[in-house]
Amino acid sequence: MWRFLLAGLAVISVAVFGFSMVDRGNGDVEASAVITIPDVDITGFTRALEPRDWTFPRDHGAHTDYQLEWWYYTGNLEAEDGRHFGFQFTIFRRALSPGLINTDSEWRTNQAYMAHFSLSDIEGGEFYHEERYSRGAAGLAGALPNENQPDADYRVWLDDWEASALNDDATLTQINAHGSDFGINIMLEQIKPVALQGIDGLSAKSDEPGNASQYYTLSRLATEGTITIAGETFTITGNTWMDREFSTSALGDDAQGWDWFAMQFDDGRELVLGQIRLNDGTTRRAYSGTMIYEDGSTYHLDFDEYSIEVTDTWESPHTGAVYPSGWMVTVDGAVVDQPDDLEIIITPLMLDQELNSGDIAYWEGAVQLSGDVSGYGYTELTGYIDAIAGRF
To answer: In angstroms, rounded to a whole number, what is the distance separating the alpha carbons of residues 278 and 184?
Structure first.
């Protein structure tokens, strides 16, 4: 969905003016850096004002004329014995100024990178998560293709965490990432065409022009490879979801947070939808959703074509935040060509999937689908401790 740069300008200052940082998930950060927070002027950055002319695989790479960008992967995977795992792997880019700078220094850069990596061991009842920060220089982090290397193969990386193409059109990719005691090495095969979110890829977040992102999804990536936990390796298969967004905008001063749901049905369809929650307890009608049919065609859902009802809650023992922890999503039957509405029950596969070692705590985890459909998905919940206004 509209991913966010959790540590905001503090991340930029560390990554650009300091050295690489690694958070091992226990609150201790290994670093050698001085944190200063510069003012960032968005003048000169491109804003998402109209749909773009998409070109793939070039658009898998960097768009440094925009201030913010992210590469977001989540998946539900199973070992040969049926053991279930969920994972999230996200790399963020944020810039101090538009474009890549020309410099004789190997270290000087205007690009900062951050990565989040988490693994949910459902049967084991363990949730692993780490984050890293780095500057986009000296080979420490980066994204290709870019304006200097428009014909490069798709690759985005931070240290040794990497997603990269295995063929020319990037329909086969690989993710390789290893934390202190967990890791993944998986291959992803694109099954469906690119799904453009919003209106032709322009996803509005409010009525204000430019307060939007360029947004597309690869909704079903057949996945195989290995997961490693505490020295034990599991051979896995499953499905991965990829989201890509880039923008130069803010959600607005009245934004408290959001709830976002990516669902992969067993019948071959996918559904993504969400809502922006405001400080006054209401929801903003700007964001909507997309139904992706088995043949890859899509239907853009208006806000009034679905509803989200919370059915349960969970209190975090780490932060004290109270999160929704169960939902009934109802989709207008006309969207799915049936007389009755489609009712989807969403249940977390594990309650504690809260990433709580960074600047902002948020819940992002694997969920199971039941009701009128079956399948799995991922849910993201932000703004349940502090408002996210001013951080995106």
So the answer is: 36
| pLDDT given at position 18 | 47
What three-state secondary structure class fits 84? Answer: strand
Nearest to 333 by CA among 369, 364, 306, 293: 306
The amino acid occupying position 71 is W
Where does 250-387 show beta strands of DSSP type E?
255-265, 270-278, 283-284, 289-292, 298-301, 306-310, 313-315, 322-324, 327-331, 342-348, 354-355, 362-371, 375-381
> What distance lies between CA 118 and its chain's CA centroid?
12
**Distance between CA atoms of 63 and 147, rounded to whole angstroms?**
8
208-212, 241-245, 314-318: least confident range = 208-212
Contact yes or no for 204/213 (Cβ under 8 A): no
Query: CA 78 to CA 213: how far, in whole Å?
Result: 33
Which of 85, 187, 94 minimizes the C-alpha distance to 135?
94
Tokens 């993504």 belong to 272
CB 375, CB 349: distance < 8 Å: no
> pTM of the prediction?
0.90
The token pair that represents 314 in the structure block: 């969970």
Number of H helices, E strands in the chain: 1, 28
Tell me if the bond preceding 348 is cis, omega within 30° of 0: no
Confidence of residue 277 (pLDDT cuts 50, 70, 90): confident
CA angle 341, 347, 348 (to 5 degrees): 150
User: How many angstroms from the chain centroid is the CA of residue 275?
Assistant: 15
pLDDT attached to residue 283 = 79
Q: Stretch 226-244: mean pLDDT, rounded? A: 97
Task: Tell me the mean pLDDT in the region 147-171.
Answer: 97
Name the amino acid, one letter, at 67.
Answer: Q
Looking at residue 286, what is its pLDDT? 65
Q: Is 51 helix (H, G, I), strand (E, B) or coil?
A: coil
DSSP 8-state class, residue 302: P
DSSP 324-355: E--EEEEE-GGGGTSSSPEEEEEEESSS--EE
pLDDT at 230 over 60: yes
